[in-house]
């Protein structure tokens, strides 16, 4: 376990005890990367910052629910941000996330390169990198598109030029393989 992981676990434990310094340490260490994750999903900085702010409130109020035996502190924190961002998309405000002036730019840019760059910057010694590396390339790409890029199954199927059912089953099987590998 790295020092940063231990620091995050200790900071969450401090939050659970009501120590605000724990939340500040989490913020100082992770806020920039959390905004980047939310922005990749939402594609708008101001919405990403809003999601991260809401996520820190949730981290503060629910820190007592974190259990080191169920996963890393970093994974727990990032899942809160990711889920908040995806919930914002699902709440029916998706059409407001990209302004008319940005549509062309988004269509021209290859967001898949950005998603794959996130994969390549993942710590090569981490268990997650090892488990993702064990997946077939197309399944790994589908999982990264869903969980890093925030793409829906339909969008993934379209980008990978696969039938929707195939994309769904590949992602489901890939996640199952990841769970087994991570356990």
From TrEMBL:
<dbReference type="InterPro" id="IPR013324">
    <property type="entry name" value="RNA_pol_sigma_r3/r4-like"/>
</dbReference>
<keyword id="KW-0804">Transcription</keyword>
<dbReference type="InterPro" id="IPR036388">
    <property type="entry name" value="WH-like_DNA-bd_sf"/>
</dbReference>
<keyword id="KW-0731">Sigma factor</keyword>
<keyword id="KW-0614">Plasmid</keyword>
<protein>
    <submittedName>
        <fullName>Sigma-70 family RNA polymerase sigma factor</fullName>
    </submittedName>
</protein>
<dbReference type="Pfam" id="PF04542">
    <property type="entry name" value="Sigma70_r2"/>
</dbReference>
<dbReference type="InterPro" id="IPR007627">
    <property type="entry name" value="RNA_pol_sigma70_r2"/>
</dbReference>
<dbReference type="InterPro" id="IPR039425">
    <property type="entry name" value="RNA_pol_sigma-70-like"/>
</dbReference>
<dbReference type="InterPro" id="IPR013325">
    <property type="entry name" value="RNA_pol_sigma_r2"/>
</dbReference>
<dbReference type="InterPro" id="IPR013249">
    <property type="entry name" value="RNA_pol_sigma70_r4_t2"/>
</dbReference>
<feature type="domain" description="RNA polymerase sigma-70 region 2">
    <location>
        <begin position="27"/>
        <end position="94"/>
    </location>
</feature>
<keyword id="KW-0805">Transcription regulation</keyword>
<comment type="similarity">
    <text>Belongs to the sigma-70 factor family. ECF subfamily.</text>
</comment>
<dbReference type="InterPro" id="IPR014284">
    <property type="entry name" value="RNA_pol_sigma-70_dom"/>
</dbReference>
<feature type="domain" description="RNA polymerase sigma factor 70 region 4 type 2">
    <location>
        <begin position="127"/>
        <end position="177"/>
    </location>
</feature>
<dbReference type="Pfam" id="PF08281">
    <property type="entry name" value="Sigma70_r4_2"/>
</dbReference>
């Amino acid at each position: 376990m790295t020092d940063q992981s231990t620091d995050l676990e200790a900071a969450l434990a401090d939050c659970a005890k009501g120590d605000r310094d724990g939340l500040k340490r989490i913020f100082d260490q992770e806020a920039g990367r959390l905004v980047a994750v939310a922005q990749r999903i939402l594609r708008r900085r101001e919405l990403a910052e809003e999601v991260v702010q809401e996520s820190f409130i949730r981290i503060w109020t629910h820190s007592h629910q974190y259990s080191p035996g169920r996963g890393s502190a970093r994974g727990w924190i990032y899942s809160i941000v990711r889920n908040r961002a995806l919930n914002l998309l699902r709440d029916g405000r998706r059409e407001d996330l990209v302004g008319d002036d940005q549509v062309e730019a988004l269509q021209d840019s290859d967001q898949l390169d950005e998603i794959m760059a996130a994969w390549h910057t993942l710590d090569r010694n981490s268990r997650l990198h090892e488990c993702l590396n064990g997946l077939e390339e197309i399944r790994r790409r589908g999982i990264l598109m869903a969980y890093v890029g925030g793409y829906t199954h339909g969008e993934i199927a379209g980008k990978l030029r696969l039938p929707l059912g195939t994309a769904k089953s590949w992602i489901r099987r890939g996640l199952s393989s990841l769970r087994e590998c991570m356990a």
